[in-house]
## 1
Amino acid sequence: MTIGRRRPVVLLASALLVSAAAALPLLPFVDNYVVSVLIVALFAAYFGQAWNIVTGFAGQLSLGHALYVGLGAYAAGALFFHWGVPPWLGMLAGAAGAALAGAVIAALSFRFRVGGVYFALLTIAFAEFTRILFDHFSWVGATSGLYLPVANRAHDDLLRLRGSPAMFYYVLLALTLGGLALSRHLLSRRIGYYWQAIREDEDAAQALGIDVFRYKVAAMGLSAAMTAVGGALLAFYDNVLFPDTTFAIGRSVEIITAPIIGGLGTLAGPLIGAVALTALGEVTTRLGSGLAIDGLKQWLFGAALLAVVALQPAGLWPWLRSRLGLGGDRR
Amino acid sequence: MTAAPLLAVQALARRFRGLQAVDGVSFAVPKGGIVALIGPNGAGKTTTFNLIAGALVPDSGRVVIDGSDITGCRPDQACHAGIARTFQLVKPFAALTVIENVMVGALKNGTDMREARRAAAELLERLGLAGKAETAARHLTLPERKRLETARALATRPKILLLDEVMSGLRPAEVDAMVATLADLSRATGLAILLTEHVMRAVMALSHHIVVLHHGRKIAEGTPEQVSRDPQVLECYLGRAAAGGGG
């Protein structure tokens, strides 16, 4: 934390960025399509932040975060569909359920000393198992999907999360900024120091009095709850849920890409990675349709990932930081 | 030794497959005492450390600190009972800065970040690492890492500090500096120290009492002078001839 004297500059820059982000949907050239692209970026940033807590901060590799997206999405979606429960309440229920699921999976794994790659495999297994379970779960529509009722309305209904893309944009912007603030707070407190100590060396951390098991389970529970909150929003934005897409392995992989490209374990990394990836995706989609090259987008994504891993393995943000002379080689 | 030692190790034993690594070892460390655990390679020193610090569970025997039995406790519980240890193969939190490494130790005593930072800065000063406070630990040299390891352990404010080969790899001048630092610390704060060490220069200068292990058994103990004259000790260190004519 060497930012000390640079704090005013950092604060000013952050304030400018936030105002710019808030003003974006009001600009003349920003239509619903552009807003939908921005929403994609914000979802990636927010899910990345949530995943970053357990893997970036606490060092426990989860490759099954689609599970928590799905639990949040289905909890909020099904409660609204069947009983008209307001989405924000359903979101809380989903977050609680996901926190419990994450904590139980983590506790089972760590109690039996399953770590590293084996832990990652186990997280995939639980996500896949849940996907198959939901394929046969008729209360939420099973494989036919869960469709949330959509009605044309003149005004955005924030309480019921029914409305325009711009409304979702602002909700997601607030959520992402909240995620950033929460991550920053946690990292500056004892729990953040303990998570990082565990990530760096578990034996040394334990010898310094840290109840490693408890802190790892807490990281997973919190990360899962945050992910589920995003999942609930996703349900009301997409209005339709299928187990095969909601719990897809592909989604778990998408979630981890932004933070890895932006800078694993850093605060701004997930956000910067999400913006960079979405921008790259849009440019290549347009190029691809112009040039009629199939799969150009996927190809360039892979190339970008390879380039970052080969050239800047710490991610874009640590590299940007040092280029901008912000000091501090981590956050 | 006083009637109630700070650390009492009683008939500690641990077996690895066919090897009896530690075989009924007993000794005690009084408050403020500095005790060295010495012996040839494979004598069971590090295993004994691990049994005391909770990294290994003993097959039998007891570990009592300040009257409370911590036999079979986890390392973090042993730490909360007042035991801090360093690792023979240093384990810095590589991506964290030097001061953050020490703060992790200091945070055992409370969640106040400012207080943890203050305590950490003080220890870095004491161990001559103040100039490196904001450096990432991965950039430290080996002697610096050893000092960081010691600072981090001390930051937990232990009753007893277990130092596992903390002098090895240091130059003689660095050994002397470390010995002076540890002796000062023990005198100033009443901290007890249990150390294993191959560097005899440090063992002789620092310890009040020496316990000698060989093949997992305690073969001698006493003051540095007593131990250095003990025929059994000379035999295991130097061979039969040096112990005064075999036979």
Note: The mean pLDDT of chain A is 91.
## 2
Amino acid sequence: MKILIVDDFSTMRRIIKNLLRDLGFTNTSDADDGNTALPMLQSGKYDFLVTDWNMPGMTGIELLKAVRADPNLAHLPVLMVTAEQKREQIVEAAQAGVNGYIVKPFTAVTLKEKIDKIFERIDAG
Amino acid sequence: MTDNVEVDQDSLDLAREYVKQLEQGNSVEADNLLTELTHLRESQLFQELGKLTRDFHEAINGFNSDERMHSMAQDEIPDARERLNYVITKTDDAAHKTLNAIEVVMPIAEALEGKVSRIGGEWDKFLKKEMKPQEFRDLSQEIKEFFHSTDCDLKSIKTNVNDILMAQDFQDITGQIIKRVITLVAEVEKSLVELVKLGGGLAVNESDSGSSKKIRESNVGELEGPQVPGMESDDAVNSQDDVDELLSSLGF
């Protein structure tokens, strides 16, 4: 399982990386915004994307839309981990095809729950 | 203006009289008139000078009260920007120091956990007398090595936990910096309110000037970032449960 973590704050990337490692996901890479992440996704055979929303350059929602628009990436599971918690934004992310939405600050338990749920649904579908 | 006309009239009268006395050859009288004329001119000059001095004084007083504003705009706001950047640097450093220590400690803890459970299992086997002599010799060697390596591991854990402790010193420093910036922002706000009162005569009352919610409402569609306790948007969810509820209502 190869996971890409996208967040403009390096500390948050490290936290998510550590949490994922605890959950048994050791093969992770990271990027600091959508512009860096998209080429990595296109060439890197990633199985899962965890992204922040508010980033300079290309934001998380733009990255999500770009991923869904790319035929090779369209089915990549995307988990959004963000401090944005306005209803209209959560709805926008859902409409753009996000697979899970976590608001910061979050716990290791929440992260595990959402990831499990995403894979359950993928396995069922 | 009337003053000037009067003075000019006086000067004119004196000048005519002066010329008349000169023509008549009364040099002493003429000299006296000239002195009087000069006096008149001087008093006019002093009046102007006095007025100028008063204006200058008022201007300086006005400038003094503006100096606070000047210093805020020139130095303190850029300074506050620097300070806040420093807060970002300090918190970033602290987070990285803490994460570094955790990344060292975690594998040690995991390895210890593994070793303890392995040796524990072997020990149980020994207690149940299910162990061959050679196995026991291996176990006792392993226990000896375990004590040695655990000693090193614990020292490393202690050092790293201490690093985590020390990394928390950012709170004190950043707290002080942020407090100063809050004071500055309050002062700028006060000055702006004064300015608006002076300039527009607009009815500025406390409740209006403090209503950041109104300002935020005008920015629909923009990213808001983290919600600050006590200033949450009406449109924001309050917890992960609310997010889950909203998503499930959308068919997730």
Note: The interface with chain A takes residues 92, 95-96, 99, 102-103, 106, 221, 223-227, 233, 235-240, 243, 246-247, 250, 252 of chain B (CB under 8 Å).
